[in-house]
Amino acid sequence: MTRDWFSTGHSAWTLALPLIGLLLLLQFTTLPQRLDNWLYDTLITTWSPEAPEDVVIVAIDEKSLSAIGPWPWPRSVHASLIDNLAEAGAERIVLDILFTEPAMDDQVLAEAMRSHGRVILPLYVAPSSQDDLFREQLPTPRLAGAAFAIGHAHVELDSDGIARGLYLYNGLGNELWPAMALATSSNSPSVAPVSPDGLDAPAYVNVRRDFRRVPLAGRSGAYTTYSYSDLLVNPPPSGWLDGKTVLVGATAAGFGDVLPTPFSGLAQPMSGVEFHANVLAAIENHGLIRQVSPLWSVGLALFSGLVIVLVLPRLRPSRTFGFSGLLFVLVLGTAVFTLLYLDTWVPVANALLVPVIAFPLWSARRLSLANRFLNQQIDQLERGNLLHLPPPWSRSPHQILANLRELVTPEGWLLMEDDTILVRENLSNDELPVWPRRPGFWLHDHGVSRTTLTRGDHRYRLALKLPSGLAGAAAERYLGRLELQQPHDHQPVAVVRENLSTRINRAQQATQKLNHIQSFIWRSFEHMPDGIVVTDPLGLILFANGHVPQWFNEPQPSLQGMSLATLLQGHDPRSPGWSETVADTLTQQQSRTVDLRLHGRDFLIHFAPFLLPDSNQNGVIANIADISELREQQRQHREAIDFISHDVRSPLVSQLALIEQLKRRPGEVQTEQLEQLRKLARRSYHLAEEFVQLARAEQLTETRFYDCEFLAIVENARDSVSEQALQKNIKLVLLGSDDLWLRGNAELLERAVINLLTNAVQYSEPGTAVTMQVFRAGHQACLTVTDEGPGIAASELPTLFDRFQRQKSSELAGKHGVGLGLSFVSVVVEKHKGEINVESKEGEGSAFTLKLPVTAHPGEPEH
Question: Disulfide engineering: 241 pairs with which of 90, 159, 357, 686, CB 3.0-4.6 Å?
């Protein structure tokens, strides 16, 4: 995936040029060669072959030198050893001993060699002295003539001094001798050098061909080794060495060849004879390792570089490291595979260095581009016209006081700078002995909230005398949420000398500002009183605030991507459908306002088109307003008019008719007519009183609340209906003696309890009882009024507290009323943040329960 904030057109060259330059510089060092050697040594020592049992070493060790005598030994001694080995059945004998000088007993050794028939001797190609030319150091002619084969015993040391292989052919000019192990493995005699085709070199030039690496079987001592003196003094039994190749050579310290190997390094070098044993085993097992031409290594490095240069700039930053690692593993896997399965060593150091160098190079390049991009974007953001939301602590104390006076309407205030009073109203410093020590922290005590603020070198003290009651408590909570003092961790970002760090700090500031603005906008949408829906040009919903899933009863995730017309049609189907309204808004770019009905509630939805500046992006913003309360008020208004026109007007008309009748016959006024006139007037009064009380309850606010005792309210209500209960011989029972204090309006609460008791008495049969139980449940004061009346039908319970609702049984019984009493009770309880519920069964009576929040006793301190 490519990034869109910078072009990669020239990125390949910007990566390739420094990569090639660094790789060329590394060729002048030993790093690539050392890396190749380390990798080869690690692999060859991890997967080393087993030492074969048919290759045995006879060591000229310290024990043999002590038993036989100092070197050189008589050649008859070697002849005796050859006879013993031949008697034991040795198939081939390799004497890794130079016999360049003739001796008197050469004939004895030569006869022993001829008797065995397969004895191989070494030669060396080396200068006789430091200033001399290369010469072939051959065995004496007599011994050379008796040998089965002659091969060179030279082992090649790498630049780090480690023996890892040898040349299969070595000699002077055009005459090359095979390696001693190669000559040993041959089944044909080879006592003369070979002349390869096409070779034309001077006779004094040391020529080497066909280098092979040798997989060693392990450290020194991996092969079966016997002491020279043991086999000389105690000849092995016949057949003991059947089919085996015996290499005889020096292993004593300071005597013979010592070769550092990948297993030992310079600490524990390997003897030359054991190295040749490894060469012989590798030849016979076809395990010698070929080394490819340097061109292959260069080609692999170029291929690796080409891949990394073409692919890396097109990857995301999170994937560049993974791709570089993958390429590194692939190159390394190629070296491992060719070595273990193809017996070929490919130097891969340069190819491995390509991803190792390319990754930080490209990371630096990408970081430079990102720095440039950040610089451009930050400058653009800083020049842009962003919404600025200054924190409250950036305001002056005078402005803070002015705003708080408008918001919390305190009864008094005080603002001081150091010890000077700046503003004071109905509050003095003498009344405030204690101020909070921590700036910005509010201390609330005895209705006065105070805090301290620091602005520069000045210390301000601000106090507000809040109104009592719930309004004051809400104001205290509001003040506690304000941050009027700059936080200690809000420090200006220090300028960092390093350029990238400065850019990152600026980007962080800009990002925080954008996030703050975005959060402010989204939170504003979420907390709007109306539902907000934003669509794309196809009318699909992009955003919906919290009201929409709540009102439509749809989960928020399902709204994303849903068609707005489908959503509306599914919940309020109509013809023509909503798609026509949405389409007109989108195509004609005209606003629409339509009524909406959801789950029994009334809404008004306003469709408005929008078009983003400098873009073709457009859509619809739908504002959904809940007008259920407005429609309910309109319904109540119509019901009130109907009530006035019928229930109030009817008794007044009857009174006027009766009065006109009395006027026509002033001397015939009867007591029954006066009683009827009184009942009509009382009925009109009660109707008007209920209507007025309900209006007072609906206009009740917390400013008219005060401390009142609940039990006393119930007792007063009981006394008010006692005469009515006495007339029907109904007993009023009050249970409970706890003093439960409320914050409310005792007059309206008493009226509400009277309504409950009046209904209980009115609908109860004579001789029954009405029970009032006052008790506390948690943080609520409760009153349960239980009667023994006919009960209420279950179908009438849901609308029992609606205004102008009356029971059918009451209407059939001829009991007068307009259905405002219980509605009044419900409104009073709601205004006091309480709740009311009813339990009733027909024929068993009803139980109404009021639950109101309690408050502390006026004489007790508030906690």
Answer: 90
Asked if the peptide bond before residue 853 counts as cis, ω within 30 degrees of 0, the response is no
Helices (H) and strands (E) in the chain, counts: 26, 32
Per-residue CA distances from 591 to 110, 403, 582, 586, 588 (Å): 120, 37, 10, 9, 9
CA-CA-CA-CA torsion for 677, 678, 681, 687, nearest 10 degrees? -130
Give yes or no for a contact between 592 and 581, defined as CB atoms under 8 angstroms apart: yes
- The candidate with the shortest Cα–Cα distance to 71, out of 313, 248, 252, is 252
Check residue 265 and give left, alpha or beta (phi > 0: left; psi -120 to 50: alpha).
Answer: left
Structure-block tokens of residue 240:
């003991």
Q: Which of 474, 415, 405 is nearest to 444 (CA)?
A: 474
Q: pLDDT, tens digit, for every residue of 728-757?
A: 899 999 998 888 898 888 888 998 899 899
**What does each C-alpha distance from 806 to 53, 292, 501, 588 come to in angstroms?**
115, 107, 77, 52
Q: How deeply is 224 buried, as exposed, middle or buried, from its count of CB atoms within 10 A (0-12, 13-18, 19+)?
A: middle
pTM of model > 0.70: no
Rounded CA separation 574/582 (Å): 14
**What's the Cα-to-Cα distance from 314 to each of 9, 320, 363, 789, rounded to whole Å?**
10, 9, 13, 86
φ, ψ of residue 744 to 5 degrees: the values are -170, -165
CB 124 within 8 A of CB 154: yes
Count of residues in the chain:
863
What is the enclosing helix (H) or strand (E) of 503? helix 499-526
CA-CA distance, 402 to 391, in Å (whole number)?
Answer: 16
Instruction: Find the helix packing angle between 11-26 and 294-311, rounded to 10°.
Output: 150
* Cα 466–Cα 472–Cα 478 angle in degrees, nearest 5: 100
Q: CA-to-CA distance for 78 and 140, rounded, in angstroms?
A: 15
pLDDT tens digit string along 296-322?
888 888 998 888 888 888 888 888 888
Q: Please answer whether residues 213 and 164 qualify as being in contact, where contact means their C-beta atoms are separated by less than 8 angstroms.
A: yes
460-477 burial: b if 16+ Cβ within 10 Å, else e:
bbbbbbbbbbbbbeebbe
**Measured between alpha carbons, how far is 848 from 834 in angstroms, rounded to an integer?**
13
Peptide bond preceding 573 in cis form (omega within 30 of 0):
no
Closest by Cα among 268, 262, 250 to 289: 262
- Mean predicted confidence (pLDDT) in 655-662: 63
For 185, the enclosing helix (H) or strand (E) is: helix 180-185
Q: Collapsing DSSP states into helix, strand and coil, what is residue 796?
A: helix
| Helices marked H in 665-814 | 671-698, 710-727, 746-763, 808-813
In the block, tokens 């059947």 appear at: 242
Residue that has been written with the tokens 């910007």 in this structure: 14
* β-pairing verdict for 175-178 and 265-271: unpaired
- Rg of the chain over all Cα atoms, to the nearest angstrom: 55
* Local confidence band at 680 (pLDDT 50, 70, 90 cut-offs): low
- Are 199 and 174 contacting, i.e. CB atoms less than 8 angstroms apart? yes
Structure tokens at 402: 């002015």
Mean pLDDT in residue range 783-798: 87
Question: Of 10-24, 223-237, 481-495, 774-788, which gets the smallest average pLDDT?
Answer: 481-495
Is residue 179 very low, low, confident or very high in pLDDT (cuts 50, 70, 90)?
very high
- Is residue 4 pLDDT above 50, yes or no? no
